[in-house]
Fold each of these.
Amino acid sequence: MAKMNFGGVIENVVTREEFPLDKAREILKDETIAVIGYGVQGPGQSLNLRDNGFNVIVGQRQGKTFDKAISDGWVPGKTLFSIEEAAEKATIVMCLLSDAAVMSVWPTLQKHLTPGKALYFSHGFAITWNDRTGCVPAKDIDVIMVAPKGSGTSLRTMFLEGRGLNSSYAVYQDASGRAMDRTLALGIGIGSGYMFETTFQREATSDLTGERGSLMGAIQGLLLAQYEVLRENGHSPSEAFNETVEELTQSLMPLFAKNGMDWMYANCSTTAQRGALDWYPRFHDAIKPICQWLYMSVKLGNEAQISIDSNSKPDYREGLEKELKALRESEMWQTAVTVRQLRPENN
């Protein structure tokens, strides 16, 4: 592991250079890796592992997702099985089901997690709040995690482009004495760019905070608030959307992702510089109390319980679609449909 300086804090980081793919293959050469669940993370991680030369099988219930796995080249009875069959055959069980599904499938998985096997997650939710999820692993198995910092689609796309999506990694339980090697080898195998060390608890709390905060919840709230203020003051939908969303996503985000916010500030107009420097502290002071409230709600398990309760309702899917439909049909995101059509690359 390399020691890297992150803003003055030294952290453990694993790169492909110090942990090459050949080393990962050697560590896992006698392992059968079962990817359980072919939904969000399953396709990207399993396909990358397969393309990298690992012994991978997939466990998935019958249905549309099972059919998708077949279309991706997984062969029923050879590399594609029921969840129970795959878990039985595997030495490493990669549990990539949704948090709600993990709870329902846990009794099935548990009986096949025999001594010496490894149980792998890409999210710390089920283990961190196992007093609520019921996912309490036996002491004679490894419990490990590699959590890509993005969607399974991004993981696969970046792999095919010869790039890598960054991941965090953690060992919760080392029964075999090889848990760390297994973890890092799997992280390299799924196509991680580099990996940084965490714990199941830290990953789960930071992940839930991020999803509800700057990654999804807060960004939608901020964009909608600014869009509404512009519309309420006579600006057209196209103008409000371009000044709120389009310039941010199409012009600015790629630049400050590449060069940093200080570079952005140095390379915009003097009017923009002054306004940004004056106003970011005001937004910070207004938003930080909400972030603190959010983090505490996550840490106390309140957000986990809300998710568990919501996802357990029999009409969960219908209610979710109703909420998403309202978002999709809002003026701001209907404006986005037209704006996207006008982009030169779409004409």
Note: Residues 210-346 form a domain with the N-(1-d-carboxylethyl)-l-norvaline Dehydrogenase; domain 2 fold (CATH 1.10.1040.10).
Amino acid sequence: MLGQQPAATYARKVLEQLLLDLSWSSSRLEGNRYSLLATEELFRSGAQDGDSDVVMLLNHKRAIEFMVDAVPEYGLTGPVVRNLHALLMQDLLPDSDALGAIRTKVVNITDTVYLPTQVPSLLEEMFNAVIERARLIKNPIEGAFFLWLNFAYLQPFDDGNKRTSRLAANIPLMLYNCAPLSFLDVDQQDYAHAMIGVYELLDVSLATELFVRTYRRSVKKYAVVMEAVGAPDGFRVRHREHLNDAIQRVVREGQSALEAATALTLPREDVEPFTRMLVDELSKLTSYNCARFRLTMKTVEDWVKSGRRY
């Protein structure tokens, strides 16, 4: 946990690793055939086209990027969770009206006799109740567990409920700057058995064991990543929002690095080191590391193709 820093600070520090881990692990639990190495190459290349496996992985990546930006501003809310679903299921549902919408039809879950609630008005009420109750839970790990199980059990959307539950479970962890939950090394069969225990018997024992095991794994993994990142640079932290603004001015508006730095009205002594930092970041900017600056992959790809002017 990272003291009193803004929400999602921890997630931002490990974002590149989290994007890969959580996108791949969650997609694999849905039967995705991509290996971890192939997923890393996909994200590095910035590819936009491909089959349903590619779409699923890229959707996870965009949904996680959305969370890191949205959670500090909005917290845990219904619209945030519904936008998560819309991002996760974009181009994977036959009806785009179902993206982020509480379902109005019957859903059947593979390999279980459990039949979720089917009344749309009741579903929406229960969906909002889950969020409100989760907001009252003071322990972020308990909040993550609560959201993960209850969204999977409620099945509020036409499809994509389990993957939405896995990402939504990270919201309380982001709010309290805890290590994220990426479902590393979770076996598909173990996951299915845990869910069936909840669906059919209201027995959370297997789910609890699985959650504890995978979260401990995540904590260890991201502690190593954080150690590699090292102590934050005070100058960079102080000017993080300025850097975001300046990079957007360069990439979106075509300003030079010096023009962008000057437009920010920084203290005189900070202009030169800030400009050096800005130029360094622009030289490293690609479509697979642009989320931290609130830029889309397409925007950065176009900027790079145009000659990477700054």
Note: The radius of gyration is 20 Å.
Amino acid sequence: MKQKIQFFPITSFSVVMGLTGLSIAFGKFYHMQWLPKVFYDVSIFAALSIFVLLVIMYGLKFAFYPDEVITDFKHRIRVNFFSAISISLLLLSIAFYTYYPLLSITFWWMGTVLHTIFLFKTISFWVQHNFEIHHFNPAWFIPVVGNILIPIVGVEYAPQIISYFYFSVGFFFWIILFTIFLYRAVFHAQLPEKFIPTFFILLAPPAVGFISYMRLAQSWDGFSIFMLLITYFFIMLLAVMFRSFYKIKFFMSWWAFTFPLAATTIATIVAFQITNEVIFKYIAFLMLGVSMVAIAVVAWFTAINIKKGEVCIKED
């Protein structure tokens, strides 16, 4: 048990991101009267329970092994996953928005403050350390996604200019980091097998950006359509690259498959609500099915590897 706490991975919070994303999708399907409410009820409290469990586990790691937490924060890759904690809070805020507004606003403020701290700490870390191009991987997008999530319910809880601030920062860094990613992927060595699933993170910024922009501007215009169609482009690209994914060994990074797929599902439902184009309804059902299968498979392999004791181990 001591080893499990000592080497408890910060990447575990990506589990909450995936489950909460699916819960939000279930909530949208329920509100559209496409699914019964039980899916929303069960998933939202399952995600909250797992988040509390992970916070307790990582809290114990901080209490008993603070040096390990400092090592995580100084690690060139794991530092980006601290934002998964604040993103989990923001996603729970979105999930509880119509279910329990008082809890939603509490999670939003906690998530926004914490994400702001992680944002500046992470970018400061990038600037103050020397990186080689091979250190870059799509996990660097995680802090960016958090910024773009903030306006989704933030437009209800704070002055709109605050939401625009985070949206602007997130969109700015999405473009910059994507440029670096494309250069890394095309002109340098392939990503290690462990990071292959993180390619799916490329879906998250445009999908979340579309949802966030619709909450801010409430406008079906060229910019919103651009973000939605770029999301679909990446979905098609990843589908063409499927051979790169189905034979890789299990790592906790498999959870990178989950939240981006759920975010694409939610974005598609929003597109249907705005346009009433039936094609978006069909895509939403397809994406929900893919998201559910992805989460079921990843959760199954996670449980197997936890039982084998291959999750809470010392990482390079």
Note: The chain has one domain: 2-307.
Amino acid sequence: MRSNVADSNQKNRQELERRLAEFVREEVIPREDLTRAHDRDWFQYTTTELAGIARAAGLYGPRLTPEHGGLRLSWSDCCWYFEQVGRSFLGPAALGCAAPGQPDIAVLEHLATEVQARRYLHPLVAGERRSCFAMTEPAPGAGSDPKMLRTTARRTAEGWVIDGHKWFISGAMVADFAIVVARTEEGVTWFLVDADNLGMRRVRDIPTMEPFDIGGHAEIMFENCQVPADAILGQPGRGLEYSQWRLEGARLFHCMRFIGLASRAMETAQGYVNQRRSHGVLLAEHQLVQGMVADAHIDLYAARLMTHDVAQRLDRQDAIRHESSMLKVFVSEAVNRVADTAVQITGALGVSEDMPLSMILRMLRPFRIYDGASEVHRAAIGKRVLHRQITP
């Protein structure tokens, strides 16, 4: 009986994989328009339309519960799902697994009260509202070190007043509400703040190198921002713990989807070198090119194995802080090497916008900084290893 159930589950997964790959290949990628890579209105319209098609096809929301119209995949199954979806610039937003919305949904599912769920979680899941996570601050505030947090929230008779300065808040230009990280007497605490609050002001959208961004990277001022007592998300004083938990999952999802984007880059480059001739032979026949392609495949193979291992640890509810740091460093650098190689072996065409490769490289490069720079993670890894006598 167990064998029959396992066989049935395997067949169901294989069929879902097939349908998802077909959807991304035939519906999502063909709608990409490289000339509109910085047209946010077009991006929102296109991904919203695709999301409706994905929902109808039963492919939407890998981590959402069935009651919210999702698939509720395990972390391990998310590896193949996110890699496939991540092959397209539009995929994560179109299939309900893009940051900041997806990790924000995850924390709201665990922390929101019934009232908060009705006001924030359910509309976010339905695509009726958008969120952002407001933690990063200009110097000398919190960046790679969240303990440097300077935004404050003080109690009043009516609730709380938040004052602070945030920047590089992904998705904030189109967000309907923010999860704001602030310091209180109890310690670091999370607050839910509606974007139309008079005390929350979006100063500007900070331009970055990334194409197809989901909602900008805003600079925000919180000045005498008054929120009610029930605006606290979770428990007061546990904000740093919550932030680490949110970031661990977000890093893993980024690794999964960026493996997909890097894989597409190498697939595109392989097609090119099997057609382009140089010195009388195909580029694919040159040993230097063969070596570059081999290194890229080795990087992708190792990246997938590490990602699967961390996902399996999460499925077992193991602590993953150490492993997720190693994963984030390796994958963020590996996918950049792969995309850079794809650009290099396609020459001038690779740096042009006739192909998607230069945009893939621009999309991947910031991951070495976002969610903790490689240098910060390396320092943390080394400190844990040496202080705890962790054996290699």
Note: The chain is about 50% helix and 15% strand.
